[in-house]
Amino acid sequence: MKRMKNNPIRSLNLTGATNFRDLGGYVGLDGRTLRWRRLFRSDHLAALTSEDLATFSGLAVTRAFDFRGQAERAAVPYDLPGVASHSLAIEPTVLLRMKERQELGLPLTAQDTVGMMQETYRAFVHDNSARFAELFGHLLESDEPLVFHCTAGKDRTGFAAALILLALGVPRPVVMQDYLLTNELFQMPHTSLGLTSQEVLAVLWGVQADFLEAALQVVDTDYAGMPAYLEKTMGLGPVEQQRLVSLYLQAL
User: Could you tell me the maximum CA-CA distance found in the chain, to the nearest angstrom?
Assistant: First the structure.
């Protein structure tokens, strides 16, 4: 990914975390730009190489927020020097549902998988708001550099990134562009997971605008829009939003 003029690169080009990237540089409220090297989103951090660790150390990240479920964390743990790790567990459901269909002998198409992914995103809004609210609570504590992630850094992480960017006034089309960057950056694991066709796996390991839109539509219909959702479920009222802005947007 090319460096933007007079700005750092967005993707850190890590070998062991291909979806590790900076949320800085986007234009938010009042034309103010998100500060670089404060907010990072990523896939899991357990496979960083020695070169990756040197790059990561230079970012001065002190906090990591892990959306992986308990089994995911236990299977692929990590411990980064000087980084406090916080579990914000959201248990994965799509793989379980796919395996259940297989056990029942039911066919599974790419379109079936798209539907499952959309349901997962709707559940982020209906069932998992408390976890995302916890992240916002930590965001409001200080502007020390942090990273939030899940396994692939695309779904739980993608929705969290969208909420943060929208809370900071980044336009929805730009938020969607950031979300879809996963398809350019993330390298699918070299495993079939014993599941099904490559078409299904491509849906499972990628992102589509329809996924994030499914969640945003729930926000719009059930909460009368993002501002009300952020205030009611994320605890982001006017005072908290102003603090978030002061921490993560550049001064005018």
Answer: 59
Q: What residue type is assigned to position 4 of the chain?
A: M
- DSSP per-residue codes, 106-131: ----HHHHHHHHHHHHHHHHHT-HHH
Contact 88, 67 (CB under 8 A): yes
Q: Which residue stretches of 64-208 are H helix?
A: 70-75, 94-103, 110-126, 129-139, 156-167, 172-180, 182-185, 198-205
Of 48, 75, 70, the closest CA to residue 61 belongs to: 48
What one-character DSSP code corresponds to residue 43?
Answer: S
pLDDT tens for the chain, 252 residues long, are 444 445 688 999 999 999 999 999 999 999 999 999 999 999 999 999 999 999 999 999 999 999 999 999 999 999 999 999 999 999 998 877 777 777 777 778 899 899 999 999 999 999 999 999 999 999 999 999 999 999 999 999 999 999 999 999 999 999 999 999 999 999 987 665 555 688 888 898 999 999 999 999 999 999 999 999 999 999 999 999 999 999 999 997
Residue among 37, 3, 34 at smallest CA distance from 21: 37
Q: Alpha-carbon dihedral of residues 242, 213, 10, 6, nearest 10 degrees? A: -60
Phi, psi of 141 (to 5 degrees): -70, -45
pTM for this entry: 0.94
HSE value, Cβ hemisphere, 13 Å, CA-based, for 62: 8
Decide: 114 and 155 in contact? Cβ < 8 Å.
Answer: no
